[in-house]
Write a structure and sequence with these properties.
about 500 residues; alpha/beta; Arc Repressor Mutant, subunit A; Aspartate Aminotransferase, domain 1; Aspartate Aminotransferase, domain 2; 3 domains; four-stranded antiparallel sheet; globular; disordered C terminus; transcription; DNA binding; transcription regulation; pyridoxal phosphate
Length: about 500
């Protein structure tokens, strides 16, 4: 190590102070906090850490706590010591988070050993899932309109597609025209040439990441967020830094400090019915993000995939890109998944005109084009979007309100903000650890997503995502099981962690 960074005790204590407010042994909290700080880039690789006594004094803990935390990290390969050189930070051998796929989404769709999918159409559930109440996957079953349109396709409809060789990287013009028109109505004037058909919004995130990021680049990501985005950014080797959210979405007032500390290349946000909190980003915060893109050249990716599930019919502000002066790189994602059906695997990406050529090239390399039959179905469905939305409101509003009523009745200590759209409630536990509770809830036969699984830095440790897009009997039984699990867990959660002082 040539001229390494030497971290002081007080400065490191400031970074780690919030890491010591959770549950479990203090040394483990300290070790986990150090790892998260390394992942966030707050402690660069090669940094020499302060001696155990110095850090213990700065944190007001015993030296034994720091020694145990350092030893744990040495055993895991995160720290290395040498006589006379101190203890410094390293990445464990084989620990390449950029190359690990489906870390966040695997728990939703794959078996515990990641070797198989949990279920498929017409397939029985895995043995362990046969009696499982699943409140974890934020998705809907196919709209009846999907069946109606699929079965109404005529031979002429299909023959016009199969008469072509089928490689259409940009996407069907009819799809791009209707999507551009929808953006224009929403306040973002668009042409069909700016629209790229994608294989789901998930691919749209990947295409922007491929054009924007190199390994080690920083991405600001809302915390909590859509788990698929976390997996994509990990796959590209990005260093993700959490952008905190409040009851109105991403906290844009913290951006100046984050920009100065992290120099991000990309900012990822979900302004309409944020997944999982359900918040809607106010217009003023959208203007801040648009101005950021215009002024700095930082790429902004706004994910509107959940935005079509508008339950209360309140007017939404225009997309972030609508507030740009045209100089910034703001990409806007949409999808058929949340309103119609995820099985279509059709999404779209609206990019600035200056980016259209490169995005088309990136899509061509990715897969030569999204399936044309799915795109044709998407066109017909979008022509009936108002009717489908009315049907979804009739279905989802009673389910949302029922889940809220059941939680109020059976789990009155839990807190949440009723969302005006989306598919889930974001719940805050009064005490304890969401991951521990989710494991206990699973043993009671109900699956939920804990906040750390939706977070860059394993934060939101008391947050749970509860999906309400389930039939009434499922929601009632699910909350009954959650209440039983909480009754078993609450005595443990209520015990305040003890800190050993020197």
């Amino acid at each position: 190590m040539d001229d390494p960074i030497r971290e002081s005790g007080p400065h490191l204590a400031g970074i780690l102070d919030q890491a010591l407010t959770g549950d479990g042994p203090l040394y483990r909290q300290l070790a986990d906090g150090l790892k998260r700080a390394v992942d966030r880039g707050e402690i660069p690789l090669g940094t020499v850490l302060p001696p155990e006594r110095v850090l213990a004094r700065s944190l007001s803990v015993s030296r034994a706590t720091v020694v145990a935390a350092y030893d744990r990290l040495k055993n895991e390969g995160w720290l290395e010591s040498r006589q006379g050189s101190g203890t410094w930070v390293r990445r464990p051998e084989g620990e390449d988070r950029g190359g690990v796929d489906a870390v966040a989404t695997a728990r939703l769709f794959l078996s515990d050993d990641k070797a198989d999918q949990r279920t498929g159409p017409g397939e029985p559930p895995m043995p362990d899932d046969e009696d499982l109440i699943d409140l974890s996957v934020a998705a809907v079953t196919g709209s009846p309109m999907v069946v109606d349109i699929l079965t109404s396709l005529s031979p002429d409809d299909v023959s016009s597609l199969v008469a072509h060789h089928g490689y259409v990287p940009h996407g069907l013009r009819a799809l791009r025209e209707i999507v551009a028109a929808r953006f224009t109505v929403a306040g973002l004037p668009s042409s069909e040439d700016q629209i790229l058909a994608t294989t789901g919004a998930h691919q749209g995130i990947s295409l922007v990441a491929r054009q924007t990021l190199q390994r080690g680049d920083t991405v600001l990501v809302e915390s909590p967020t859509f788990p698929g985005a976390l997996d994509v950014f990990r796959r590209f080797g990005a260093r993700m830094v959490p952008l905190p959210v409040d009851g109105h979405g991403a906290r844009t007032e913290v951006l100046p400090d984050l920009l100065a500390r992290t120099e991000p290349k990309l900012v990822y946000v979900s302004p309409n019915f944020h997944n999982p909190t359900g918040t809607v980003l106010p217009e003023q915060r959208r203007r801040v993000l648009a101005e950021l893109a215009d002024r700095t050249g930082i790429v902004v990716l706004e994910d509107l995939a959940m935005g079509d599930v508008d339950l209360d019919a309140a007017p939404l502000p225009p997309p972030i890109a609508a507030f740009s002066d045209g100089t910034g790189a703001i990409h806007t994602l949409g999808s058929t998944a949340k309103l119609f059906w995820a099985g279509l695997r059709v999404g779209w990406l609206r990019s600035p005109a200056s980016w259209t050529v490169r995005m088309l090239a990136t899509k061509t390399v990715a897969d030569l084009g999204t399936p044309l039959l799915s795109q044709l179905l998407a066109v017909r469905l979008l022509e009936h979007a108002d009717q489908v939305l009315a049907d979804r409101r009739a279905e989802l509003l009673p389910q949302r309100d029922l889940l809220a009523d059941l939680l109020t009745e059976h789990l009155p200590q839990w807190q949440w903000q009723l969302p005006s759209g989306g598919l889930s409630l974001w719940v805050t536990l009064p005490a304890g650890n969401a991951e521990e509770f989710a494991e206990l809830a699973l043993r009671h036969g109900v699956s939920v997503v804990p906040g750390p699984a939706l977070s860059v830095d394993e934060g939101n440790r008391r947050g749970l995502r509860l999906v309400f897009s389930r039939p009434e009997p499922v929601l009632r039984e699910g909350v009954r099981r959650l209440a039983a699990a909480w009754q078993a867990y609450e005595p443990i959660a209520s015990r305040a962690p003890t800190r050993l002082l020197v």
